[in-house]
Specification:
four-stranded antiparallel sheet; 230 residues; alpha+beta
Amino acid sequence: MGKCTTIFPATRSAPDLPTNSTIFQSVERGANFLRTFLPEVDIPAELIRDELLNDAKIMERLDDFDPYLGNVLETVVTRDATFLAFPMGELNWELSKLSFDPYILSIYNSSEDLSPFRQSGNSLVFMPSAHSVMSFDTPIQQISTSRPLNSLGLQNSYLAVRTFGPTSVFEVNTSGNTPYLTETVTVLHSDTANRALVDMCISPSPFEGLLVNDHGTVYKCGISNGRKYM
């Protein structure tokens, strides 16, 4: 066989492979790693075992309910069109290229190259682009968008992306059939008492956002004179 070449990158996370090793085997591997790469560090095997047991319990709870994972498929409504936004890539840290939804596609008779939907008989097949509009340093945990207050769509549209790191808010504008993102607000962990966010919602212009951290504290975020306030 010849050289393997990726011509269409993955657009979703690879599933985690289950591990069949026991805690005792994991402790042995951890101890061997420390002895090999950090020989000057003396860590008892009991401490490694306790940490691995605690980590296993945390992962079991996250399998049942992950409080940090929010909605990651959203529609972005602008003055001219409606788009879909979702994470992509093997690590989910890339934001999909915003694409027309089928309803707007039929109304504006836009080029099918702009849409992730393809006609197949009487059905529409979802075929997203392999190219992202931007990447983040950590996986995307939640996507939230503003909703227009009336059918005229006169308000600015905003798209918020929450990751394990900062939360970024973008103003969405369109030129013809192409959406453009302009970052307007970045919320850091230091803005929320150094706690991770678990939920958020945003409103159209004037922009305001409600943020909740993992201690249940609610923060109000907005823009005044071009600057962020909390």
